[in-house]
Design goal:
The complex is a heterodimer.
Chain A (H helix, E strand, L loop, with lengths): L3 E7 L1 H5 L9 H24 L5 H26 L6 H18 L4 H20 L7 H22 L8 E2 L7 H22 L3 H11 L1 H6 L4 H27 L1 E2 L7 H13 L5 H16 L6 H16 L4 H10 E7 L1
Antiparallel strand pairs in A: 1-4, 2-3
Chain B lengths: L4 E12 L2 E12 L3 E5 L6 H8 L7 E6 L2 E2 L5 H6 L2 E3 L12 H4 L1 H5 L1 H6 L1 H4 L5 H12 L18 H13 L5 E5 L7 H16 L3 E5 L3 H7 L2 E6 L2 E6 L1 H6 L1 H8 L5
Parallel strand pairs in B: 3-8, 3-9, 6-7, 7-8
Antiparallel strand pairs in B: 1-2, 1-4, 4-5, 9-10
The complex binds adenosine-5'-diphosphate and magnesium ion.
Chain lengths: 336, 255
């Protein structure tokens, strides 16, 4: 019997676009920037498209917030090797800080958000610092516990409005600013991080993921590098939190909700880990999906789980990895 | 070779549970020499390297590099002063191309300091330096080998990559933990000139080896370990003639 096997070959176009020949013709250029333009253009158009359904505008904002969190998770987990479930921690700290700056110190939103982002990232990094020697699942669990710890402290000491939260935070002056702020930040974070992980510093971080002993033996302080990575991820997360506070004009214990830690992981699983874009695509599917399923009440958890399980079983590589392969390679049956 | 002692190890002991991996080991390595360490499997050679390079804290004893006591220093600081090591079980960055593996040592504070304009500086320069080092160590520049994922390279190249990682740091001392093991005779023959060139460049090499013949070709002095104890030291003729070495290492047969 004749045996055949599937063979994958890079498209000629892909090979041509790897060198400087990429700029030799419009076809090559289009091949390279096409998918990027599609993503950027598509996302930028979303607010205009949803003029017809204003309810969904909020969902677009949420998609971007979760996308930023998912990029942070993907970066730490798949490029640095730190499985950090600190999404809720980042959002909570960033959200409360901006509330404090905005209401107690009456800073305008364009100051309170950046201040909350930077100071929040410092706080998050400092409290995660002692756990850095922990590995794998232990690190994950500790980062998952911090938000619970913080919300209990706020409850118990009745600080920052206690269970009532802080209300009366400034909203954004207009809806377009509100939408495009998060969309543009999300795109900048996405493309910035894709670039960063291929810079020399990024390679060092990826080296830590592959094996940290070699990085140590190369004369690099691994703890410093991990700190830097956590700080970068915290910046993204705290910005997301600060944004949410201003979006809802309210900062409460719901900012420490577990959703902010869990949904990004699900999105990264779905979209494909280690691609960063996959994290965004995952969120753009998951967040609207859970919105649609809201009508199903508690049954939505079932649909949700089935979808996720389906992805893990049938397309464990994730959407993005699959798409990339289809885009760059073709398959054929070859005799063996 | 000079009379300056570059690495001085005094009374290192290490116990794992009940197992005495190292018992009161002392030796001096002179600047610019090739110092060999031999011993049967499990005699504590790798543990000794781990103790000196900071991967394991010795229970007792001191390690001095030039005039500094480096015993309690963290690994990266020891590597930072130029005392580097290769790993017996190769540890490349599997998901990076071979030449990108060298970006990591080239990015370290030490390489930035000593690499001059080529090592540090603008983005892109490091790639060039990395390819240069790989060529020096036997990766054909024109071939695709330097661009392949390090995890897919054959053993011979991975061993070279280990050595390249040390060289990228502009080291003063390299501890080579069994760089010859797992290689064919011809591959070893290809590595030996490389070792000799490093020596010519003034790098001090401590070579831990299982394969005696190859080691004897390059090493100036040799120390033998058995069950964590130093049993002999000196020129290779004296060491292989030593009765205890013959018993321990060569199974007490006549050689
Ligand atoms: N981390 C460790 N924990 C427990 N035992 C160890 C450890 N490292 C080495 N050993 C033991 O110490 C002894 C010496 O090992 P090693 O230094 O690897 O020998 P060699 O490199 O000479 O083959 C062996 O018996 C080994 O099992
Ligand atoms: Mg060994």
């Amino acid at each position: 019997m004749e045996m055949k096997r599937k063979e994958r070959i890079d498209r000629g176009l892909k090979v041509r676009t790897e060198g400087i020949y990429a700029i030799s013709s419009f076809k090559e250029i289009a091949y390279l920037i096409g998918p990027r333009l599609l993503l950027i253009g598509g996302v930028m158009l979303l607010p205009l498209i949803f003029e017809v359904a204003p309810y969904w505008k909020r969902v677009v904002n949420y998609m971007c917030v979760y996308a930023i969190l998912a990029i942070a998770f993907d970066f730490l987990a798949n490029y640095v090797g730190l499985v950090c479930l600190g999404g809720a921690l980042f959002v909570g700290v960033g959200g409360y800080l901006t509330a404090i700056f905005n209401t107690y110190l009456s800073l305008p939103f364009y100051l309170s958000i950046p201040f909350a982002t930077v100071s929040g990232a410092c706080i998050c990094t400092v409290i995660i610092l002692p756990c850095l020697p922990l590995r794998g699942v232990y690190f994950a669990i500790v980062t998952l516990m911090y938000p619970i710890l913080f919300s209990r402290i706020i409850e118990a000491f009745n600080i920052f409005g206690g269970t009532n939260g802080i209300s009366g935070i400034d909203s954004f002056p207009n809806q377009y600013l509100e939408q495009y702020l998060i969309i543009i930040v999300m795109l900048v974070v996405l493309f910035g991080m894709r670039r960063f992980v291929n810079e020399d510093v990024g390679l060092v971080l990826r080296g830590i993921k592959d094996n940290d002993q070699s990085v140590r033996a190369s004369g690099i302080n691994v703890t410093h590098m991990k700190c830097m990575a956590v700080f970068i991820a915290s910046l993204m997360g705290c910005f997301a939190g600060a944004y949410i506070s201003h979006l809802y004009m309210f900062a409460g214990l719901s900012l420490f909700a577990l959703d902010f830690s869990i949904i990004p992981i699900a999105a990264v699983v779905m979209g494909g880990g280690g691609t960063l874009v996959g994290a965004v695509i995952g969120c753009f599917i998951l967040v609207p999906l859970s919105e649609v399923l809201r009508d199903f009440g508690s049954f939505r958890i079932v649909i949700y789980s089935v979808t996720l399980t389906g992805f893990i079983v049938f397309k464990s590589e994730g959407i993005m990895v699959y798409l990339q392969r289809k885009y760059h390679q073709f398959e054929r049956w070859a005799k063996i | 070779m000079s009379d300056t002692v570059i690495i001085s190890v005094k009374g290192i002991s290490k116990t794992f549970g009940g197992l005495k991996a190292l018992i009161d080991v002392s030796f001096d390595v002179f600047q610019g020499e090739i110092y060999g360490i031999i011993g049967p499997n499990g005699s504590g050679k790798t543990t000794l390297v781990n103790c000196i390079t900071g991967f394991i804290r010795p229970d007792k004893g001191h390690v001095r590099f030039r005039d500094e006591e480096i015993t309690q220093w963290p690994v990266h600081k020891i590597a930072g002063v130029g005392v580097t090591r290769t790993f017996q079980l190769m540890r490349p960055y599997y998901s990076l191309p071979a030449f990108k593996n060298l970006i990591i040592p080239l990015w370290s504070p030490r390489a930035k300091k000593y690499g001059g304009w080529r090592g540090g500086g603008r983005h892109g320069d490091r790639d060039t330096v990395a390819i240069d080092i790989l060529e020096e160590i036997g990766f054909e520049r024109e071939s695709r080998v330097p661009y392949k994922l390090a995890g897919t390279l054959p053993t011979g190249y991975q061993k070279r990559l280990e050595l390249a990682r040390c060289i990228a740091l502009r080291p003063d001392v390299i501890f080579c933990d069994e760089v010859f093991s797992g290689l064919s005779m011809s591959e070893i023959a290809g590595m030996i000139p490389l070792i000799e060139r490093l020596k010519m460049d003034g790098v001090t090499l401590v070579m831990i080896e299982h394969r005696l013949r190859e080691l004897f070709r390059v090493a100036d002095r040799i120390m033998a370990l058995n069950f964590g104890e130093k049993i002999a030291e000196g020129y290779y003729k004296d060491v292989i003639e030593d009765k205890r070495v013959k018993e321990a290492y060569l199974g007490s047969e006549e050689v």
